[in-house]
Structure formats: C-alpha cells, structure tokens
Amino acid sequence: MTDKVDNREKKAKDAKWYVVHTYSGHENKVKANIEKMVENRGMRDDIFEVAVPTEEYVDTKSGKSKVKERKLFPGYVLIKMIVNDESWYLVRNTRGVTGFVGPASKPIPLSDEEVKALGVQETILPSVDFEVKDVVKVTSGPFENFIGTIDNINMDKGKVKVFVSMFGRETLVELDFNQVEKI
Asked: Who contacts 112 (Cβ-Cβ below 8 Å, separation ≥6)?
C-alpha cells in the first residue's frame, strides 16, 4: 500500500496544470463529472486535481452584507494531470468540455508563475489533531466563532463536517481543515 502511495506522490510531482474550456455555467458540473470518472475508472494516478478558481466578495443589498463567491474565469476549469492517451480522452470527452486550451486542442501546461497568478494552491493536506466527536471552534468563513462537534473527517478532500448550533438547532456544515481549531 505504501508503494502505491509513494508512486502516486512521485507522479504528482511530474503532473502539470492544464486549462480546459467548458460551456459557461457548467464549470462545477464538469469538475464533478471528471472527479467521478477518475474515481470510477481508477485514474487517480493520472488526474490528480480539478479546480474552478473562485474568489469571495461582499455583496450588500438593502443594507445587509453577504459573502458570496464568483468564478474568476467563467468557462474554464484547471486540471492537474499527466497527459497520456487515456487521461486526454477522459477529459476531452467529458460532457460540457469543449476542449483543452492550446493550438488544435493540444494541451499546453501552465507555468508555475501562471498557476500562482491564477490563485490555485497546491493541496498539501495539513496534519489534523482532531477526531470525530471533538469540540471545535470555527475560525473563518460565514460560521466564524461558532462552536461545534465533529461528525465526519474527509482526509482526501481536506474537509470536516461539523454540527453547529444555529437558531437552537444542530446544523451540519462542511468546512476546510484550516477553518476549524480544536478547543
């Protein structure tokens, strides 16, 4: 098992980021479809990450501020992958994908500077010092300063599901590891 993990980590270092053009408004569907196909076809060693670059902004209506999220590049999805015939075919034939960005749909990798400029961070899963049933405090986001109990930890996605008390009811919210701290 550790040989597989080591091999995957070595391949991940060789993987490059590519840009895929999609129908506008279908970015999240394309991301979900690619991730599902990668899982179903066992291609986790060829396609490592799919990202839709977004930014948060504050929308004020009727005197009320609300944090919202918008896509930085509508119609585009970033994919960290090793291009081979099988991975190219999988991505190219995903519903909603119109092609890779590059001449004649030939994928051209982004440079490291371009990836940083697009705001895509390498996913380095932090070591977590909490477990299911631990009490945590939310440190950022719309649930900041809420106290909750961990229900589920997803190491692959770097997410944790926490029950927080809102309006006298327990509500399950999904947060990133860096949004919670153990009390």
From this structure: none
